[in-house]
Design goal:
Length: 444
């Protein structure tokens, strides 16, 4: 039987025949067998997708890129998701050295614990969101400063040397020592354990002893304190160096800056050692385990003396507690009295200011009425009207002044204003607070 040849359709542009077609069956020497050629591979699938949706090459590429970007964002949202600070988005790219690289990439909760894979995925997510081309396509014309900040943060954190330098001065990863108030309310060992766990990241020696708890043995506690009192830190502080000029023309300046940076590093190193030693001093001073170990050692030598000291200590603590309670009560009473005095003072000032304001309204009302004359008011008339105003004000209390001010507020017609004043004069005369012959200008 003669072999049957299969004619193949013309390959679309971009197809590679060897990898896009798969033979099914085989042709032997003894018999010629027809074989079926089936189109397979990513190129055929892309061709079928374009044909089904009636897309051009460029349209299909754009839609596929958008779907891939969306998938990356959805994959990352669950693990790397952090609200962006609006102030951070406005950072100048040239100020990159002062930026929080972990915060820029949304890795604040990981910091020095972030893996290289997390950093890369965080960078990819941020780039997809803040790339200048994407902003331009969305119609936004912001500058690319924050995009440059993203790139610089990634450059620093993916470089082991630069990242180590940044981690050396990353204060955001530090845990502040607990305050006395926190120690009263919280767990002493948990609070201080968090502090030294953060400090342990700088140790050249691994593993680092744990702070432990109230059940730790004397050996474990002594091992912990000995380790940290002789702490060997890798912190170098060169990230904070001032920039050294690279040009050869300023060699003296370059050497000067290098010496200055070296001295600054030594100073910061000494300050950091002193800081850690103070932490240990403060912690050990309040560590009940150390007190307990000392007491147990002394008890083995002289139990009676320790029992007496314990009784004296309890009495002293009770006395101190009573004294503290008395002082606290006295202080609270004093603070309450002070608050009451301040409140009374403010109330008096407010009342005084209200009276002043209302008196201004009273004087202003007669001025608005042109002192109840037509044309320019003579000085004698002004003097007589204001004299009556002062006389009436002297005869009434602040509440009556406020009521009279409320009646005059908003009045502009002279007769209406004068009517209010004459009514008030009549009221005072009727109450016996004012004699009729005392009034000169505000009579009915």
């Amino acid at each position: 039987m003669a072999a049957t040849l299969v004619s193949l359709p013309a390959l679309p542009e971009g197809w590679a025949a060897e990898k896009d077609f798969k033979p099914v069956g085989k042709l032997t020497k003894d018999s010629a067998t027809q074989r079926t050629i089936e189109p397979v591979g990513p190129h055929f699938l892309a061709h079928a997708r374009r044909a089904r949706h009636k897309r051009t090459f460029s349209e299909d590429d754009r839609i596929q890129a958008q779907e891939r970007a969306k998938k990356v964002e959805e994959d990352n949202d669950s693990e790397i998701s952090e609200p962006e600070d609006p102030m951070m988005l406005q950072r100048e790219a040239k100020d990159w050295k002062n930026q929080d690289h972990y915060k820029v990439l949304g890795l604040s909760k990981y910091r020095y614990k972030a893996t290289e894979d997390q950093i890369k995925r965080a960078h990819r997510k941020k780039v997809l969101k803040h790339h200048p081309d994407k902003k331009a396509a969305a119609g936004r014309t912001e500058d690319d400063n924050f995009f440059k900040c993203i790139q610089k943060a990634t450059e620093v954190l993916l470089d082991p040397v630069k990242r180590r330098q940044f981690d050396s001065v990353d204060e955001e990863a530090d845990v502040e020592p607990p305050t006395k108030k926190q120690l009263v309310k919280g767990n002493f060992y948990k609070l201080w354990g968090s502090v030294f766990k953060a400090e342990a990241r700088f140790s050249k020696t691994k593993p680092v002893p744990l702070f432990g708890d109230d059940k730790s043995t004397k050996e474990d506690v002594e091992n912990f304190y000995n380790f940290f009192y002789n702490f060997d830190s890798w912190r170098s502080f060169e990230y904070l160096d001032e920039d050294v000029p690279d040009d050869n023309e300023n060699r003296d300046q370059k050497r000067h800056m290098e010496r200055k940076n070296t001295n600054a590093r030594k100073k910061k190193k000494a300050e950091d050692n002193a800081r850690l030693r103070k932490l240990l001093d403060d912690c050990s001073a309040a560590d009940e385990r150390i007190k307990r170990f000392r007491q147990e050692a002394n008890a083995a030598k002289n139990r009676k003396r320790l029992e007496k000291e314990a009784a004296e200590k309890k009495a002293a603590e009770d006395a101190a507690a009573k004294k503290e309670a008395d002082e606290k009560a006295a202080k609270e009473a004093e603070e309450k009295a002070k608050v009451d005095r301040e409140a009374n003072k403010k109330a008096k000032e407010a009342a005084k200011n209200a009276v002043k304001k209302n008196k201004r309204v009273l004087r202003g009302s007669v001025k608005d009425a042109n002192y109840f004359v037509t044309g320019d008011a003579p000085a004698s008339t002004i003097e007589a009207v204001l004299g009556d105003i002062e006389l009436v004000q002297a005869k009434i209390d602040p509440d009556e002044i406020a009521a009279l001010s409320a009646k005059l507020t908003g009045l502009k017609v002279a007769d209406e204003i004068k009517g209010v004043w004459t009514d008030e004069v009549k009221r005072l005369v009727g109450a016996g607070k004012l004699k009729g012959d005392e009034i000169k200008a505000l009579k009915a």
